[in-house]
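Ticket #4471: structure output looks truncated?

Reporter: J.K.
Steps to reproduce: submitted the chain below (270 residues) through the standard prediction queue, then opened the result file.
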Amino acid sequence: MVFKDNLASRSFKLPLRWFNRIGWIFGTLTAAVILLALLSARYAVQLRSSDSGRIEGLEEEIEELQKQNETLQGKLTEVQNTPPPTVAVTDASPVPGQNVDIAAPSDAAALPADALSQIPAGQRFAFVPPNSITQPLPATDALPFTLTPPTFAWRSRMLSVKFAFQYIKGDGGKQEGRFMLLARGPSHLLTYPEGALPSSAQGTPLIQPQKGEFFSVSRYREVMAEFGPVGSSADLTEVQVLIFNSRGELILSQTLKTGLSGEPSSEAKK
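Returned output as attached by the reporter:
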């Protein structure tokens, strides 16, 4: 810079390192702004993808809850429209805890000749409605789902059963229906869900698919059921799983051995 004063000039020199420092400062700020923009864009992409997956999961849960709500409303309407059952008590009435002989319902003759033969003899506790067995049971490996190996445990004289439905067909679909568990032993027959057996077997099939618990599985659906209380683990030796499709047709009948015997352990009692 030059200043003139009475024809005299003066000059000022600026060090080159000042310009270098200014250049470094602007370069650093520019790099920081670019890095911040890239991080913001990456975060926005991740947030968008996670939101879409979460929304899809919430939609599936809402759909399942709506179906369960419709099922409960149907049961409530059925209970409201059904008159109270009349139970005749006689000296021959079975005492809880004793063996009960179950007679075939009046419409059992309508079953196909080979329908009951599709169920192994050791699994035939009861009769199902005639329209529930209209054809041979499908092969287990032909079903789009499988059952995980069950686990059994005793807790305060209660038998706890835990397993899961796992959808194995890679078509993006799902399996819907109802299932029922029957736990039995030498002198016991318990059900899950509770109250699945009718109060009177006269003219009514013992197993009614609509009384089973609704399920819908597209990936994995866990089941945990409890039976009891009972005196010892020898009172419940096996659990039968009955699975019906959405039309009420029996598609799987599987018996699970508890593998437990004797009195519940002291830890279970606690």
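Triage note (M.O.): checked the attachment and the full token line is present. Residues 99 and 187 are 5 Å apart (CA to CA).
Status: closed, working as intended.
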